[in-house]
Amino acid sequence: MAMAHPNRKSLIPTTFYEHARHSRRLYWLTPAIVLVLYLCVMGAFIWLQRLQSDSVMFVTIDQETRQQRLMMVVFALSLVIVFSLLALWRYTRFRTLAEAALIAETGFRRAMENSMSTGMRVFDMQGRIAYVNPAFCRMIGWNEADLIGRTAPFPYWLPGRHDHHRETLAQLLSGRTPSSGLEIEAQRRDGSRFTARMYVSPLRDPKGEQIGWMTSMTDITEPKRIREALTAAHERFMTVLEGLDDAISVVADTPEGLELLFANRTYRRIFGAQTSGHAELLGGRLGRFTDETMELFSPTAERWFEVHHRMLAWTDSRRVRLQVARDITERRKHEEESRVQQEKAQLTSRLTTMGEMASSLAHELNQPLTAISNYNMAAVAMVKSGKAPTESLLQALEKASQQAERAGKIISRIREFVKRSEPRRQAVGLTRIVENAVGFADIDARKRRIEIIQSLPDPMPEVMADPILIEQVLLNLLKNGVEAMEHSEYRSLHVNITDQDPQIEIAVIDRGHGLRNPERLFEPFYSTKSEGLGMGLNICRTIIESHHGRLWATPNPEGGTIFRFTLPKAPPDRQVQATTEETQA
Questions:
Q1: Cα separation, 308 vs 325, whole angstroms
Q2: Which residue has better confidence, 533 or 230?
Q3: Residues linked to residue 203 through DSSP beta bridges, in sequence order
């Protein structure tokens, strides 16, 4: 690398030194005046001495007078000298104070330069380095002596990229650098590289003439790395957001309405770059700051969406609404189809249960029908005899009516159990559900000589449930228990209901053969019965889970199985309403 000759006249500080020397020429005026006055005094004194000896005027004057006049002249000249010395002392004092202030200011400015973390560098008009501060030297690892007076190529230029650096230097010296600065790369003395931001401004002397260029450089290697990492993270994040199938939008509430701050590709494809789609999916939450999830139908898109809504702080600290809308049209379609199939399966299960109990039900109905026939025949015989007591006739007819009512209740219960209806969760008392289920199961239990024992709380709690579906579950469990105890020596099947606020637990406890494969008990099409379809317990679990409950089975320590399921209790206000409806019924 070329090294310029250390011609100090070419450096920027020389200009300031010359200006200072030019400004100090007037400082010698006062000492010169004092010297001239002193020479004048001495010359006048010598001249008076000679004049005194040669002049006729002084001959006529006595010696004393001549001495007085001479003393007056000397005194006058001494006063002039003293005045000059006082002026010189005043000037010297002013000069000393000025130099002390200048030294202090120079030291302060030098301390500032040495304390700066920004690298300062000065080029003269020919492109030579005229000044560098310690921060610049620390930044590139070169000393001040290695840089002052140096011309291009500079030691901190990157090898192999000198042409690029020369273009940058030419741009700098021509004054075409942007006000936002230049991003440059440099190499330290140890070979490591860094990136810096350089700002350039013209350097002018006290007369306003440009004498060079002042540059400031800041190491931005780490900020640039962080910025690039953030930019890459932002790009990845935006790529993920743009690739999501969910419609994501962010809006802010303003006096003029909603302001769309962000919308991903899916949202723009469905609703466009407008706030109408976001407002359509708010679901009545406009003006309310709530975090919740809702399923809403969009008339504009003609699709169903699962909308997640959340309030968050935007980049400018405003409270904004983030909305994530997932298209669930296909899911709702499948759920509807599944619901229809589930209803069909539940109806089939009920019909299957009734089919299995058909013989027992026929026997149960045969008793009241036979009794009705007998009572009617007795009444007819008494009427034909003509001697029928009125009281006996009325008793026969009343008993026939009671048996007809009994048969009607059995038929009504069967009809209500097997009829197809929409699932409807409501506050209902467990008393009616247990009575109906036990009434059905008791027919088969009496046939097998098994007693169903109930343990119920007092008062009986109410639950949020569909009575028909829960009756189907309980009947299925009772029927399984009765069948499991057919060959058991213990002849009692227990139904226990306990209040475990906020839920009710119903347990069916049998002393039958127990569980063979408890882990597969609720699998579809798995059955322990040779003639079973394996859908009963699976449907029962589905029904209970749809009621936000749980159905499970555990071995009975005394032998057999305990089936338990839970149901949510009805709220107090719904319990009062349900009690009133049951009383009216």
A1: 6
A2: 230
A3: 212
